[in-house]
């Protein structure tokens, strides 16, 4: 088992990475917990829910199970309230511990429920998708969506621990592996050129879920993310660079309707667009932008921006949380392995948003 | 102007207390704020909304006004969403600043909105009821209610500043003055016997809103509360003592339906009950319990517990956030000016809950 430590003002906790972690979850439950609530979705619950609840029952504590409908479109107040309703119906106190068993949606909703239930209780992240293992389960961002924008309502709230079992990826559809790899290669682009090169060299092994390759990719992603988050928990500076590709990506998700493209797919395409913008605004080497496009394509994500209409693209990007005042702010690359935040005027961006670019 | 400083891990901020503070609000808005959102209710908005928005407009920043319906029964997700909808419709960024202009409900809902909007933005408390000035605006507790319990969904989230203008109390109904005084005298009971004596001596001046008396009561309450909160922001110990009278009080509010009794009235009666329980469990001097009953009556709050049915009383108190496991925990007084938390078995409590006690 590997351990990556996260140290933020909001909490210090370990990320445990290793095959078989799922069967050892009971060890992560604090001794003074009065009950355990497993929050999952209908898909993951069907695969791992019974085993996890049985394992956690070994603590001798009452185990409650809450299943949310599966999909980004259910990242809502209604799902959040399913958790609150169940916990309050069982009169669970503030020493209950939540376990988020699922992908990014389950982790974000369950984490936000933990942040709000009786003003904050403890929770453990057990990410079951590659995307959640390398990105969303680490760093304490929790949220639900609002009809006008993704992740608009939420909290920075750190878990007690993150338990990553790469074995669960075997039941994941290939499309979700591709989407998860988008966030993996992002960490190379913004913070570690050597890791980007390693990804270029191991893309086939990664897509085939080669055990060693996946372990390295998950660990290096967690290390980079935890390093960033430990320096800037509340995203006042450095952490914003983790949003590389996300300004465009969020617009795609919101513009097409949540659930049409997977988050990682939208980010993959968004990174190609952000690299192109980096060439125009910061003089990023054209060959780097081409390698980024090639790698996004190689992991199996789309590289062609959908036609949302130029003005709608801009309107959608203007509600991004990074923005301050009038200009839209983008994460751009001055070179491979380095990122910075920069406001760019709409006229410079428009050509990238026109349909039928190839 | 008086200043009381609050220092918690979650934030350091001043409480400014002085006649005319309402007209000086523009000074409290941070220079880098991109917009100001005044959250108020229909009652307070009608009295002070225009003046406050005009004052804040002097900052040169856009000012948005959101009016919530007035009453504890509107401390809900729907009210919270009115704020989110308005802010997102105007595409406000995370450098917007919220101003909570109203009583405890407005402060709690607006504070929770600030805690959640884009994972946390800044806000200023401008309490306009005595209860909010001496209690709820200080210390960073924010929340909404759930059908199964009061303040079940919320966050610990500190404001940038608390601005208290005692002049606004002149428009407050006498019943709300009485309710606010319940929290004032509570601070004496749990932490400062001298202040309790001062309250006994100045109860007429306080009810008549004598300027010097009110200023002293507000300041001393803020000092005691900020001292407690600075030592225990998240209520793991000392802060719980601020809940003296609240276990019974919350059951009254919830059992009769929110809005029947004012929060302060329920707490007033709850303190009489908790003092009686203190006599039985901790041997509190009978004369102290009698003085507490007399003072609660003198400020104009009820001292006779409503008939909810004994079992329903216990069921309602069992969902209290203080509880751990089976026993209900109460804040009790070993002597005047000192409080402690103690689990008490139901059999000891039942006699206090039977109807027709005098």
Write the layout of secondary structure elements.
2 copies of one chain form a homodimer.
Chain A: E1 2-8, E2 11-17, E3 35-41, H1 42-57, E4 63-68, H2 77-89, E5 96-102, H3 104-116, E6 122-127, H4 130-136, E7 141-146, E8 149-156, E9 161-164, H5 174-191, H6 193-207, H7 211-231, H8 246-256, H9 263-282, H10 286-298, H11 310-318, E10 328-335, E11 338-344, H12 346-353
Parallel strand pairs in A: 2-9, 3-4, 3-5, 5-6, 6-9
Antiparallel strand pairs in A: 1-2, 7-8, 10-11
Helix pairs in contact in A: 2-3, 4-5, 4-7, 5-6, 5-7, 5-9, 6-7, 8-9, 8-11, 9-10
3D architecture notes:
Two copies of one chain form a homodimer. Chain A is α/β, with parallel strands linked by helices. Chain A has two domains: 2-167, Rossmann fold (3-Layer(aba) Sandwich); 174-353, Dehydroquinate synthase-like, alpha domain (Up-down Bundle). Helix content of chain A is 46%, strand content 20%. Chain A is built from twelve helices and eleven strands. Chain A has a seven-stranded mixed β-sheet, with helices on both faces. A two-stranded antiparallel ribbon of chain A has the order 7-8. In chain A, helix 1 (42-57) links the parallel strand 3 (35-41) and strand 4 (63-68). In chain A, helix 4 packs parallel to helix 7 (211-231), helix 5 (174-191) runs parallel beside helix 9 (263-282) and helix 8 (246-256) crosses helix 11 (310-318). The first copy, chain A, starts with a strand and ends in a 5-residue tail after the last helix. The model of chain A has no long low-confidence stretch (mean pLDDT 95).
